[in-house]
Amino acid sequence: MPIAEICGFNPEGGNRDHSREVFADRSELAQALRLSWSRKMTEGFFMRAESFYNFATYLDSASNLRAYGGKSLHHQSHGESFLALFEHRFEQGIYILDEPEAALSPQRQLSFLKIIHDLAAPGHAQFLIATHSPILLAYPGAVIYGFDDDGISEIGYQDTDHYRLTRDFLNSPDRYFKHLFEDEV
Asked: CB 35: neighbour CB atoms within 10 A?
């Protein structure tokens, strides 16, 4: 995520202290973007679901488990390890999260919303989240941007494709199964 690069986070994920691999060159998009801050955030974290395993391995090798609940993230379920990160590492700063719902059950997504609320409500943290989860998209007061062929624009929660598809499927799964498995249902 180019915004994470501009904020000084390793493209593999982590905070500014995690220097597993040096990426000297910024992506073309990161070079083209300019950010402005009303108050510069110096703390935070960049989390990528697809590189979380590598991050957990880095933590094990660095013996830096205290800040993550004191237990190897590899010795927890995928969802437990994500929540351990969110509960024990997130305090103040900017949190850039790429598909944090990847390992979270619907119940754990609700737990994650509580963590976001407890940090964001008093103004301690700001979250920038790329997600497909209708549960996370429903966060009260969230500003949601849609990306499509026409560009980037703000979109209402109930206007997102993710909300509509999930709602329609839950209201009539047989209709979807009939379409998906025409010859079988």
From this structure: 9
Instruction: Please give the model's pTM, rounded to 2 decimal places.
Output: 0.81
Crossing angle of helices 78-89/106-120, nearest 10°? 10
Separation CA 134–CA 139 (nearest Å) = 9
Among residues 154, 87, 93, the alpha carbon closest in space to that of 120 is found at 93
Closest to 68 in 3D by CA, of 176, 80, 125, 95: 80
Residues with Cβ within 8 Å of residue 119, at least 6 apart in sequence = 90, 91, 92, 125, 127
How many Å separate Cα 156 from the centre of its chain? 19
Cα angle value 168/100/103 (rounded, 5°): 80
> How does pLDDT run across 130-185, given as a tens digit for each residue?
999 999 999 999 999 998 899 999 999 999 999 999 999 999 999 999 989 986 64
Angle, alpha carbons 83-147-13 (nearest 5°) = 35
Q: How far apart are CA 62 and CA 59, in angstroms?
A: 5
Please determine, for residue 18, whether its predicted confidence score (pLDDT) is greater than 60. Answer: no
**CA 126 – CA 120 distance, rounded (Å):** 6
Q: Tally the residues of the chain.
A: 185
Question: Which spans in the chain are helix H?
Answer: 2-6, 28-32, 52-62, 78-89, 106-120, 134-137, 161-171, 173-180
